[in-house]
Predict the 3D structure of the following.
Amino acid sequence: MVIMLVKYWIITVFVVFFKFKDTIALKNVKLTIQPAIVQYLSHSTLRCSYELEDDILYSVKWYRGLLEFYRYTPSEHPSTKVFPFEGITVDESSSNSTQVVLRNIEFNLSGNFSCEVTTDLPHMVTGVDQQSMIVIQLPESSPKISVGRDIMNTGDLLRANCSSPPSRPPVTLQFKLNDRMVAQNDPYPFRKSSERSWSDLALELVLNDLHFENGRLVLHCIAILPEVYQEEVQLELASAKDPIPQQRVRSQNGVKKAPEQTKLPYILLCSFLLRSAIVGIS
């Protein structure tokens, strides 16, 4: 009976020890993608950090979705393997046990990436972390504003259109009038190719006196991809009732002063009226 208890105690101690050892052996597996928002045909670095403690590294595997595309196994020669994956170009000279550098990144790589770290015997512990990448393409030029006419008046219907060149994803467009956001129709993205989309936004607005500032309307169009891109253009419209500036003659102290040549007619007029009055009295 005593022998059985001793055996049971020894087995329990070993089980607890190995379980505890497993929990502290491999830890803090973390994947970072820099940059995580990548311009089409650009590059990005995937870094996998981890702490082995006293364990030995068996392998580090890299996945796009569920498919492995790169593996590092220090016990093998060569220690690295690249697996075919459409759209993935691994820079092997810059990749190792803690990072993978991707070149010429294509749109199909948008999605989840993961690194899987496994330690060697006797424990064979595995840790995984996952992060997302987004592949974008910015517009090649600024948005453009077009209007029906560039001279407007109170009560007129302002019809305007803003369009942005192809991008992926399509940019969000917004209108401002004299630095104030205005209500507008829903943006309309339309596709001219299989990969990129134009963006188009229409505006219809009946103008009132509040829309004019010193007889001017300034229409802005803003193209936005949150956290990545923002481009703004503006178009100035004139009012049909622009006031014609009046010429004023001012003295140095700012008081309005008539020119000297205007005084003579007033003197002659006063002299004529005075003589008429004297003749009438006599």
Observations:
- Residues 25-136 form a domain with the Immunoglobulin-like fold (CATH 2.60.40.10).
